[in-house]
């Protein structure tokens, strides 16, 4: 067999050297921080009175020393009904009596909850009707009574202008729902959660010549409101994150959140009085913060996670004891994250069971005092756990 020409050997050696150099020049992906492992305790939520069915846990909240979890029950035929639970310590729970008033209300699954000192309110929906659209409604609870469906006209949340009614917030100024109508971001307001008024088509809140807006979450700021969402620029294909602020729910101011590669602000809370928002951007999740009293001066302070195999989403964000806890989805799994420095750095939180990131699953979180409650549904069963808030310095 003839020997290879020396120049051929040199060419191969040089090529290998170039490849090795190229491999060394690619920066290594930073390792994910060590996970936090809280001492989880399983929580048993009793099955409410009535027809049998498995629980569907969708959301949780804490305020005024009381915990709440909401969702529904589903039977073997797929029929659903609303359900809610409460606890004074996060460990021992009781089912709240539920009083539905409409055909669809009796089939609602409650998907969002908020509370304040004088009670709790929730949003529920059931797909139905000729077009198969969600039939959405609100619910209100006061201590000592049942959780009652609030009567409302069909077009308050539905009708030809309907898009979404996503999250519910409570504060000294009343109650507010963040969502969208056909012309962009919209809100619904109420002094007592006993009946909402839709606020749509408002300047700076709704879409205009700059593009179409959407609202995803809200938080009370004093007696006013802060809403976060996104803008799809006119003629554009990539979202950019926005925040909207108002003292009365009627007049709004718009502020852009810095994001070089686009994205959306999907959840917002107050941490030590400062608004903090989290949302998906290219490559992971971004964290923005604004000074107290200056909701127009947002800056990006941190980020975490990485792009997954599907659409990134933030499904929960809470603040307590100086810590932030976020629930996210990456197209494959729902996950928890915790930050002790205002959102600059984050560590993953291990939960007792895996939760897939798909439409029939849920992972929600609530925090209060030194406690952390997680409710989860993997599409086949629902479970809940309670733990002390993790110390991220451990």
TrEMBL record:
The superkingdom of the source organism is Bacteria
Q: Which SUPFAM superfamilies match?
A: Sialidases
Against InterPro entries, the record matches this protein to: Sialidase_sf, WD40/YVTN_repeat-like_dom_sf
Name of the protein described by the UniProt record: Exo-alpha-sialidase
Q: Which organism is it from?
A: Micromonospora halotolerans
Taxonomic lineage: Bacteria, Bacillati, Actinomycetota, Actinomycetes, Micromonosporales
